[in-house]
């Protein structure tokens, strides 16, 4: 999880948000159980504000921090706590009773699994993303296009159960139809690591531990000159749709819905667009 606190007017609120998250993380790591009544009272006494717990995919880190700052300014007396991880990990935590008020996933599969168990309400699409190939700044394998990906001797991707890993597999299937049946085989034989979330893929590439990786466009934009970005053509790319919903166990469903409404509002969509996300209204691709 990215816990860096940028120098901005929202830095103080983000520091407080991180402190609250530390307390909640102890609950999650302790077995995804809610605090006992006495512990809940002690935590509540630390703040007179109403707390909203957001579970969100790692790729939403910067966008949701900015949205949280704006939401707290509009909703007086509300403290937003952000918990980021791979969507599959967040799904598991919610299935085990973690105290989430909102779940924002990087794909529909994990949301649908929770919906099938009546663990979330009706989801809404709020953003979409796309894949890119990233390399270290010096691009040691000389990758200039998607067709060049087999040149990477050390490739890092998302694990199969992680949304970015699922999207990567779908991209490789499409690419093999264009570049030859052995394209996917050549790419997969050089995979040296399958990571639990997209930020781990990005970090390994930016640190030079891999020749290339497949990540979301928004994550590549965040790293700037720390990585070299190679675009994947639209015909081969996979649209990553992001749904959001209120878990049925949330004790604050009305407040959680206000968060979702804010994310879908013009202000929320503008923040997402600034971070590189596509809007919520375009027709979805047939992606995993």
Entry keywords:
D-Maltodextrin-Binding Protein, domain 2, 42% helix, 19% strand, alpha/beta, 11 helices
Question: What is CATH's topology name of the largest domain?
Answer: D-Maltodextrin-Binding Protein, domain 2
- Mean pLDDT across residues: 87
Number of beta-strand segments = 10
The value of Rg in angstroms is 19 Å
> In terms of quaternary structure, what is this?
single chain
CATH architecture of the largest domain, by name, is 3-Layer(aba) Sandwich
Quick one: biggest sheet?
Answer: 5 strands, mixed
Give the termini distance in whole angstroms.
24 Å
The largest beta-sheet arranges its strands as 2-1-3-10-4
* Low-confidence sequence ranges: 1-12, 17-35
The CATH homologous superfamily of the largest domain is called Periplasmic binding protein-like II
Strand content range: 15-25%
Tertiary shape: elongated
Fraction of helical residues: 40-55%
**CATH class wording of the largest domain:** Alpha Beta
Order of helices and strands: HHEHEHEHEEEHHEHEHEEHH
Number of helices: 11
What structural category arises from helix and sheet content? alpha/beta
Task: Please give the domain count.
Answer: 2
Pfam families: SBP_bac_11
Family: Belongs to the bacterial solute-binding protein ModA family.
Organism: Bradymonas sediminis
Protein name: Molybdate ABC transporter substrate-binding protein
